[in-house]
Amino acid sequence: MALDLDTRAQLIDTVRRFVEDVCIPLEETVSQTNSMPDDVVAQMKELGLFGISISEDYGGLGLTMEEEALVVFELGRTSPAFRSTFGTNVGIGSQALVMFGNEDQKTEWLPKIATGEVVTSFALTEPEAGSDAGSVRTKAVRDGNHYVLTGAKRYITNADKADLFTVMARTDPDTPGPKGLSAFIVERNSEGLSVGKPEKKMGQQGANVCDVNFDGVRVPITNRIGEEGEGFKVAMSVLDRGRFHISALSCGIAQRLIEEMVSYASERKQFGKPIIEHQLVTALIADSYAEAHAGRAMVMDGAQRFDRHEGVTLLAAATKMFCTEMVGRVADRAVQVHGGAGYIADCAVERFYRDVRILRLYEGTTQIQQMIVGRELHRKAKAGEPV
Ligand code: COS
Predict the structure, then answer these.
(1) How far apart are CA 179 and CA 327, in angstroms?
(2) Which one of 24, 117, 155, 328 is CB 3.0 to 4.6 Å from 112, fit for a cystine?
(3) 187 with 59, same domain?
(4) Which of 204, 236, 370 to mutate to test the pocket of ligand 1 (most atoms within 8 A of CB)?
């Protein structure tokens, strides 16, 4: 159920203060050390951030998608590594359980995910299965009351910290493509499961991605989420929702970058006046402001439709496409407004410029979103629905 407006305003204010008082002052340290301080993680747990999307019945805050978006707009105003710390618990790591888990699975895992006691990861991508998510090769072979999982997953966010993985694996070797897949919950300490070293990345230091290998991992059949063969639908539904979350994050980061641009351009003088008074600089900021606001409006509309249980595949793809591309343009303009200073490593916009690049790639590239938008419009046209 949605929060009343006062409680909602208080929650947003609390998150804003956490971002301003705790996260922003630590951005450089987190980036340099490539790690998140334990006391910051403890504060995130205290605030309930690991459980914002999990219902109160299981110990979470039970926010609607709209409320989650408002919280994520705030969290976007600091390095995305902070949000990533609990982002998989809120989104792609937990949502298969939330949407498709049975009561026993939910009761066992969701309360621990909501508090952050258990960290979750979403293991779909493989060396040969990226954009073509239906081509997963990791296999799950039934053996009595277990499945035996063998295969390799790649670039799995938070795998280094995860206690629990949502894994997509092929249960039907004779059915190629999306229909032969099933979803599983796999515990980190399972025999045969190993996690690779964190990759060195372009940005978002403080949040890690690693390979996850399954070498004959025995998983009880009670750990299958949904029916055999439903894994692709599970993964796509999780990603539809996740795409609004990433879009909200993009808008939040755009907001921070606009604040950085306005602040710098108001102080920095050239040709005898602040550069914000030079029209060509003003245009860079004005375009950014208008585009960020458009992105925010798209997120709010999509989130409200999600909460009304309308089909959102088309809108989720269109929103992610626009918002992640938008923040890429805004980050580029922010560097431009800062001039040479924006290219120097101790400038926040230099870091954000690198951090936002992944947003156009993970949870579906821009080109995949374009493909989904095209397909959905075509499907509507064929069905005689208004486009
Ligand atoms: N929700 C529910 N079901 C969905 C769905 C969605 N959003 N999208 C597709 N499906 C269903 C389809 O309805 C279809 O079922 P039926 O055959 O019963 O009709 C089935 O899943 C297969 O769909 P489709 O034919 O569209 O699958 P494709 O393999 O052609 O491709 C795309 C689908 C490209 C959309 C998918 O592979 C994708 O999203 N790729 C990007 C993956 C990604 O985001 N990776 C990031 C890794 S996680 S960080």
Answers:
(1) 35
(2) 117
(3) no
(4) 236
Taking CA atoms only, the protein residue closest to ligand 1 atom 17 is 179
Mean of the per-residue pLDDT values of the chain: 97
Parent domain of 276: 238-383
Q: For residue 241, give every residue at least 6 positions away whose Cβ sits within 8 Å of its Cβ, in sequence order, or none.
A: 65, 91, 95, 99, 306, 316
Decide if pLDDT at 237 tops 90: yes
Boundary of a domain, candidates 229, 248, 266? 229
- Ligand 1 within 6 A of CB of 131: yes
Please report, for residues 59, 310, 329, 360, the alpha-carbon distance to residue 370 in angstroms, rounded to integers and kept in the order given: 37, 20, 18, 12
Please tell me the residue having the least CA distance from ligand 1 atom 8. Answer: 236
Beta bridge partners of 167: 123, 184
Active site residue 67: no
| Shared-domain flag, residues 95 and 147 | no
Task: Read off the pLDDT of residues 250-269 as tens digits, 9 standing for 90 and up.
Answer: 999 999 999 999 999 999 99
Q: Tell me which of 229, 252, 279 is where a domain ends.
A: 229
Single out the catalytic residue among 20, 117, 363, 385. 363
Tell me, in angstroms, the distance from the centre of ligand 1 to residue 324's CA: 20
pTM, full prediction: 0.97
Relative orientation angle of helices 348-355 and 231-267, to the nearest 10 degrees: 160
Contacts of 46 (CB under 8 A, 6+ apart): none
CATH number of the domain where residue 108 is located = 1.10.540.10
Around Cβ 37, how many Cβ atoms within 10 Å? 14
User: Percent of the chain, pLDDT > 70?
Assistant: 100
For residue 252, give every residue at least 6 positions away whose Cβ sits within 8 Å of its Cβ, in sequence order, or none. Answer: 72, 73, 74, 75, 76, 77
Other CB atoms within 10 Å distance of the CB of residue 178? 18
The residue contributing the CA closest to ligand 1 atom 24 is 178
Separate counts of helices (H) and strands (E) for the chain: 12, 10
Cβ contact 323:297 at 8 Å: no
Two tokens, residue 36? 């998140």
Residue 373: give its domain's CATH number: 1.20.140.10
Which sign, positive or negative, has the C-alpha torsion 198, 199, 200, 204? negative
178 lines ligand 1 (CB under 6 A): yes
Q: Please say whether the dihedral angle defined by the alpha carbons of residues 23, 90, 187 and 174, taken in this order, is positive or negative.
A: negative
